[in-house]
Amino acid sequence: MSAQSKLLLPSMMCADFGHLADEVTALETAGADGFHLDLMDGTYVPNYGMGLQDIEWICKNATVPCDVHMMVENPGRYVDKFAAMGAKVIYVHPEADPHVARTLATIRELGVEAGIAINPGTSFSAVEPVLSLCDYVLAMTVNPGFAGQAWLDFVNPKLEQLVAASHEGANHYEVLVDGNCSPERIAQASGMGVRGFVLGTAGLFGRGDYGTTMAALRAL
């Protein structure tokens, strides 16, 4: 994988919402490949993420693709809403959806790319049957719902399994990582074949000029 082929996706939950338009422009200028938008319901995860109005504004005003990471119970009830907002990828958690195969198929029917987000404690075998329905797989290397957590090393073998299966048989998906994506971890996971990285405080925000920082991450 070439350095330029990495997908670098700022987690907009970490942006300065007092200057959101400026943040979007600065991150796009710095080379962001897309924006990662977190939705939480306080039930599936014990926290709340971005507001619906913020998600809609970014989706409609960004010049790069936006994905919505739905950390909510029964996400199938809401996928049409985020498709209408302009999300290009929608991620759902299989643990939160009793009919995840139907939800993934619905996302594609809406003209949006389908993604599955996999918690650290969810095994490869548990999601293997639905991987052929996915365009992206978002492997969580921290427990969802909170920023600033440490990378859980026991997830690494699952990353390797996901990459190995990503273009086998009927599978055609890319593997991305969400959680403590520091420069060191990005270098490690890139070596495994991981394609994309959600960038929060460990790799981007609060670390100086966005352009300089992202250029250094691409070069890893």
CATH class: Alpha Beta
Specify the helix fraction band.
25-40%
- Kindly identify the CATH topology: TIM Barrel
Strand order of the largest sheet: 1-8-7-6-5-4-3-2
Count of DSSP E strands?
Answer: 8
Radius of gyration: 16 Å
CATH architecture: Alpha-Beta Barrel
Oligomer: single chain
Q: For the report, how would you describe the main beta sheet?
A: 8 strands, parallel
Explain what this protein looks like in three dimensions.
With 220 residues, the chain is an alpha/beta fold. The chain has a single domain, classed as Alpha-Beta Barrel (TIM Barrel). It is built from eight helices and eight strands, in the order E-H-E-H-E-H-E-H-E-H-E-H-E-H-E-H. Strands 1-8-7-6-5-4-3-2 form an eight-stranded parallel β-sheet. The longest helix is centred in the N-terminal third of the chain and has 10 residues. The termini are close together.
Features:
single chain; alpha/beta; TIM Barrel; 8 helices
Provide a compact summary of the structure.
This protein is α/β, with parallel strands linked by helices and 220 residues long. The chain is built from 8 helices and 8 strands.
